[in-house]
Amino acid sequence: MIYFYPNSGKRAALLLGLFMLGAGAMAQQKLYKKADSTGTAGSAEAAERLKNVPMLARDTVGYLPNSELLLRTTGAVSRLPLDEVRKLPYTSVNQLLLGRVNGVDVRIPGAEPGKRSSAFVRGASGLLLKNGDLFGAQPVYVVDGMPLITEHAFAFDVQRFDFNRMGTEIDPLAFLNVNDIQNIEVLKDAGAAAKFGPLAANGVINITTWGPRSGELKVEVNGFAGISVKPSVDVINGRWERDFRLQFYDRYASKEQFRSFPAYLADSTNSTYYGNADWDEAYYRNGWVTGLQAAVSGGNRLANFRFSVGQAAEQGVAEKTAMRRYNVNFGINVMPVKNLMWSTFISAAVINRDRPQLLRDRMGDEDYILSLDKPPSSSKEQVEQYFSYLEKGVDKNRNANVRVLNTLQYSFGRYVKLNSRFGIDHGQNYRDLFIPSTVNDGNNFVSNYDGLHRRLVFDNSLEITPLQKKGQRLSVTLGQYNQWDMWKYNYGRAFKGKSDYIQIYQPGNDDNKTGASHNLRLTANYKDRVKANLASFYADIDYALQDKYFFNLYLRQDGSSNVSEAERWQLFPTASASWKISGEDFMKDSRLFSNLRLRASAGRIGKVFHDDYYKGGPVYNVEAGWEGTPNMATYNAFPVLNAAYELGYISPGIAWAYTDQLNGGLDVGVLNGRLNFSVDVYTRQDKNLLLKVPAMTESGYTGVLMNGMDIANYGGELGVNAVIVNGKNFGWSTALNASANKTKLLKLPGGRTDVRMGNRRFLVGKPVDKYWLLINDGIYATDADVPPGMTYQGLPMKGGDPKWRDVSGDNNIDDADRVVTGTHNPAVQGGWANNLRYRNFELNMLFRYAFGGKLLNKALADRFDFVNHEGVDAIEGVKEFAYWTKPEGDLNGMYRYNPWSPVRAYQAEQTLFLEKASYVKLRSLSLTYNFAGAWMEKKGVRQLRVFVTGNNLFTITNYSGGDPEAFDYFGYDQGVYNWPAPKSYTLGFNLQFK
Amino acid sequence: MRYIWMGSLMCLLATGWLSCKKMLDIDSTRAVTEENMWKTKNDAWAGSFAAYGLLRAALANENAHWAYGDMRGGDFTVTKRGDLQALRSSQLTSNYPAMDTWRDWRRFYAVIAQCNLALAKLPGIPELDNRYARSEMKLDAAQVRFVRAFTYFYIVRIWGDVPLITEPFKGDFTANTREGWQKVLDFAQEEALAASKDLPWQFDGSNPEQQGNYRGQGISHWRSILATRGACYNLIAHIAAWKKDYATALKYINTITDNKARTAYDYVTNNDMIVAPSGTSGSTFRGRTNWNIFQLDFNIDHAEISTTGQLEYWTLRYPDVPKAEAEIYVTKDSILNIYSNPSDVRASIFFKDMTSVQPMFYKLRMLDGAVRNPTLRFFNAAIVIFRYEEMTLLRAECNARLKNYAAARTELNTLRNRRYIDAVPEDVTEEELLDLILEERRRELIGEGWRWYDLVSFGKVPAFSRLTEADVQNGAVYWPLSKNSLSLNPQLTQYSYWK
After folding, report:
1. Does any domain span residue B431?
2. Which pLDDT band, with edges at 50, 70 and 90, does B15 fall under?
3. Hey, are the CB atoms on A443 and B374 less than 8 Å from each other?
4. Residue at A763 is within a domain
5. Which of A963, B5, B248, B457 is close enough to B240 for a disulfide, judged by CB 3.0 to 4.6 Å?
6. How far, in Å, CA of A668 to CA of A587, rounded?
7. Contact B29 A533 (CB under 8 A)
8. What angle do CA A650, A654, A660 make, to 5 degrees?
9. 8 A C-beta contact, residue A189 and residue A601
10. Residue A416 pairs with which residues in a beta bridge?
11. For B5, which of A418, A642, A652 is closest by C-beta distance?
12. Which residue in B30, B117, B377 is closest to A612 by CB distance?
């Protein structure tokens, strides 16, 4: 009977979707003729059908009938004030959330338009050590009840460097147009999120779009245009760099070291590096940002629709980057037969991204280190020439996304309803890359990436509401949920094509080594595919007593295809309750409180694994590669297959990881609702997490993958909304949100208390987000200043070496002297919004703040560590155009260590480069004029407003290394790789016709 | 109507239940589980050749073969890289990422673990797959046995006492102590001997151990790149020599030379063949020649090429690769000192740009025609482990140690003659003769990962480095263990020099 499900692939799913759409459209056509368009039923038949359908607040019959279930949100929820963000030039959901919703930490490490970003709801749910770890720590984005599929981290498996993921790196959340969004809520605790199942383990961003509506035809048009302002940078040329380095050379360099002074800095007559430092004029620009959207909606109560199209474009200020998006949405509701409500949504979007042409990223793409002898020039002509060469190449990045959602609800009279929901989220991403030989050491490079990801969900439930009395309401929902996920990609690359005019990739076969374009030996192809399925059964019991006491019990049995068979099924329960104290008799006469509500929830939610090889014990893999060639698969043309020493030893019987969440909240409204507080305290414990613990090196394995790590995130959130003045002409309201989150490692697998991984050390009982650093206490000016016998990992220390604190007191500096300290996660963060109104004018502003975080200025460390970055034939030696910017940071405050010392005096992992990075930023400022008057009525205009906005206007910070928001996901400020968000100004309007 | 809906609902839920099992049972598309491995001929082929693949990876990783074998010897001078500078001056505990990698023996133990596993699993496969004959299984297993023995020999030279693990890993990680290096070498020697019994002299189908084509390929594919009986005997000779058991070493070398008709081993026919570039048949570092006894192959025909992992990554520069300065070079003074005999052909063919401040080491320069003009830096030089000239010098050393001075001189002169150097005088003392052999090894094998081990086995480390005899006694010739190894296995201890 399995064929009942459309799991035979996307064709079946698409067919079903089309069929449902077609049927819906036909029914609509039929009914539309019979009915009037005023929102009331026209014919007797229609009247009959509408008999049992309650009028909903949003004036529509079937709008998202099934998601009603999911939308009944209690628990800890933050809502986004959308009316304001609609004015701002944002292209991604994460940009909307930043600073405006409580409990969400949005990270946008660089202002490349359209690039992937991250959000963490109530802290990260696992260890973050590499880019691939981010994918499993993101919340699920649900659009109208359809949980969106996110990208898979698997492409990193064949990549040598951990920079960009192969493919387009386009932000999947840039598909939505803000003008199509009606509502965004962040569901933070189990009480609110559990209904979304294991996907919701990291929280839920629940997005509701404007659906079809009944009523007169309504047309709206929204648009904006503006400019991102070219940044002013402190440019330098070779002279500055030479002077900077000479102070070290003069003090410490030996004759041989002097001899290897870089040639490009030694010759001060060379205009490439000693000419005018005007590279920035060609490198940066003022970028346009534009957006236009139009929507039309209407219909009667038996059949109605909404259709919208939108466009947005954003040009970055550096590297000629840009993104362009086009999107279409279509939704209809129909009631084809009595008691059956049906709604269909179809959305499609295309995003193109012009990405930066950073050298480091290119070498990552090519998996090949180009000649690093000469850095890019500091002169404008050469930047222009470089980009003109690049323009002869290709770098197309395109994501295409289609979403189809069908929901059905059938009511069996008053007490029983059947809900069914079927959705597809289908995304494709392509990248075509051709690098001409002119900028690539004389050898061109071509690659293409074709990725696909798809999610199908099928959710059926039966809702029984046996008690519907005045003082009591009980509803029981029993349901079953299935989800099929699939990710795959094909990737091919080739070096040294025959000509720069042949920009394809068509290698010859084995007999004919030189094919149409490339030598077969200089090509490589990769394919990958993962499937992950989820099946669940759930029961949702909802009970409300006298509109004062609310109880909810949600039981869910989940089975995941990525968990070993013995451990596959597990029960995840959640209970929540709330008490509306202000509804009690003793509060009835309270003048102070208009609302007082106490909430509590406790629940356990399963966490799915993203990889499919954890379920059957140890595995075999192809790992014959090494550091420079990680993907070698053969020995003398014969394939090899080895026990997975690199991947790690997979312990048998890996079980579900899950998260246990506790939340308590209090909502208070006073002074007739003019002042509202909301306080939440929570703990979230992610338990039984999978961790690759380092294995004894004699086993040959890099690590053992096992369950058993527990991490806690705990903290609180405070939201305050106040209407301070609410006069006829003048009004002022303010909203402050603040959240604090701390982490703690509760347990490590197998009773361990201490694990070291990469640059981090994790100790049970300590936070998991801190750096692991040596402490700087100064400098040993001369050999005589070094305490007798003081060594660094056994090497005697000398004058010019850092005076690192000998924490362990053994006269030897090593890892035992590193301390776990400082985190890039702020102690408190949030936003402060102010809305001022005077007659028809409105002034809105948002300050974003974060206090108590620290950053490690890696860009500065690398600059001081020039010895190990100059002339090294490795990725660390790459310099970009923006290298010719004066390094940001406390240049003069740094000790002048001996950079040649084998102790590696300027390693980034020391407190020397750790700096406080608290800040307040005026993220947005907007001035709006709302038109009003009788003329609008006459012209049929419902709403018209025009506005100007300014973004990122100023930042107040104690961080000396530049924009305190521009750093990578792991707390390192990578300088030129983390672009600060530019200042931008826009002008826009919202227009609604009746 | 209502019943129809109720009925369909029941069906719906029922189908959901039924399909769940099937829906959730998906095999991984990305890795092979234990139950699906070691079942067929293909598994045997891939699982046994993984031993070679992992060994090549271990030697290529961060140019480990030369980091261990050449750099500490001091013949190469470093231009800029701090880690190489520290390596050259034996500051092996210094803080560089590559140094961390070199200190770590995990990749070698991955080779050993794979060998242990394959040796346990291979014998069961012929029963499961009748395409995989028992004779072929024995051949594969013997090669794996050789790789394991070689790996133990290799790591004993680097770390001295090392844990001896001979059984496949069974799910619990037990902490092992460092076994005395003699005992490890005894094991390696026995294993090499055991392997030799099942291996042919050549994979040309003419030996009882191997008939017809091996894996569908003839001798031209397999020459030098697989374990043979000759490779086993050569390994035994080296192990024995490291244990100072020169009689045994000589015995096995003699067995090889006595079987010349079957091994076809020979000297490089023409001196240019040592340095001949890729594309020249018979080129030593392209390999698969009669003068290479065992090599770990890189081959552009199979796209087994790499930017790193071969010596060229460190030694080549402009105009061969787009890089102004090589990472390492041999100074002019050193060249004149090492090749003190002006007639020595090697001084002119191993080096280029002798007039410049930094001559280029040009012995290895495997850039295939397909990656030239302009150069795309993918090298395909084989890592040559054993070759005939090296064996000749080992034989000379054994003879000298066993006081067969005349035989030792003959061996040495044979090679000197081929490289256009005068014969050694007949009245040299044993000590002088050994010095001459060491010098000859230095001249012939420069850049092939021998120098440091030669200094150790000839007891010349104090003479050629800043380490004293006391340092040597304290374990300074060996590498320190990695922080990882030490922190994960409490049974391990560092040699006192590195404490």
Report:
1. yes
2. low
3. yes
4. no
5. B248
6. 13
7. no
8. 130
9. yes
10. A412, A464
11. A418
12. B30
Within its chain, how far is the Cα of A631 from the centroid?
28
The answer to whether A542 and A191 are in contact (CB under 8 A) is: no
Q: pTM for the complete prediction? A: 0.92
Distances (CA, A) of A114 to A189, A316, A399, A982, B171: 30, 10, 11, 14, 46
Quote the ipTM score.
0.94
Range of the domain at B151: 37-309+383-498
Judge contact between A380 and A271, C-beta under 8 A.
Answer: no
Give the gap in angstroms from C-alpha A639 to the nearest C-alpha of chain B. 5
User: To the nearest whole angstrom, how far is the Cα of B128 from the nearest Cα of chain A?
Assistant: 18
Under an 8 A CB cutoff, do A634 and B93 touch? no
Q: Are residues A27 and A145 in the same domain?
A: yes
CA distance A850 to A966: 13
Q: Enumerate the residues of chain A whose CB falls inside 8 A of the CB of residue B323.
A: 371, 373, 873
* Cβ-Cβ contacts under 8 Å, B85 against chain A: 902
Q: Please report whether residue A869 resides in a domain.
A: no
Q: Which residues of B touch A617 (CB under 8 A)?
A: 33-34
Tally of helices (H runs) and strands (E runs) in chain A: 17, 45
Query: Distance between alpha carbon A691 and the CA centroid of its chain, in Å?
Result: 22
Residues A77 and A203 in one domain: yes
Interface test with B, best of A620, A757, A813, A869 (most B CBs within 10 A): A620
Q: Which DSSP string corresponds to B256-270? A: HHHTHHHH-----SS
Residue A131 to residues A79, A152, A367, A614, Cα–Cα distance (Å): 29, 11, 17, 20
CB contact under 8 A, A373 and B322: yes
Question: How many domains does chain B contain in total?
Answer: 1
Separation in Å, CA of B484 to nearest CA in chain A: 7
A139: preceding bond cis by omega (within 30 degrees): no
Q: Which of residues 400-459 of A touch B (CB under 8 A)?
A: 410, 412, 418, 441-443
Q: Does A615 touch chain B (CB under 8 A)?
A: yes
For B303-330, what is each residue's pLDDT tens digit? 999 999 999 999 999 999 999 899 999 9
Helix (H, G, I), strand (E, B) or coil at A732: strand
Of A166-170, A185-189, A214-218, B61-65, which range is least confident?
Answer: A214-218
Whole-number average pLDDT of chain B: 93
pLDDT digits (tens, 9 = 90+) for A674-726: 999 999 999 999 999 999 999 999 999 999 999 999 999 999 999 999 999 99
- A457: pLDDT strictly greater than 70: yes
A contact residues 244-273, partner B, Cβ 8 Å cutoff: 260, 263
- Residue A903 covered by a domain: no
Residue that is last in its domain, among A651, A673, A693: A651
Would the CA dihedral through A257, A259, A263, A265 be positive or negative? positive
Distance CA A83, CA A182 (A): 9
Unique residue bearing structure tokens 């220390």: A797
- Identify the bridge partners of residue A607 per DSSP, sorted by sequence position: A657
* Residue B326 included in any domain: no
CA distance A274 to A266: 10
Distance to chain B for A613, nearest Cα, Å = 5
* Owning domain of residue A88: 2-226+286-368+375-560
Query: What residues of chain B lie within 8 A of the CB of A694, using their CB?
Result: 484, 488
Q: Is A621 on the interface with B (CB under 8 A)?
A: yes
Interface contacts A/B by beta carbons within 8 Å = 327
The CA distance from A964 to A854, in Å, is 9
Closest by Cβ to A626, choosing from B29, B60, B324: B60
Residue B93 to residue A565, Cβ atoms within 8 A: no
CB contact under 8 A, A1 and B19: yes
CATH code of the domain containing B396? 1.25.40.390
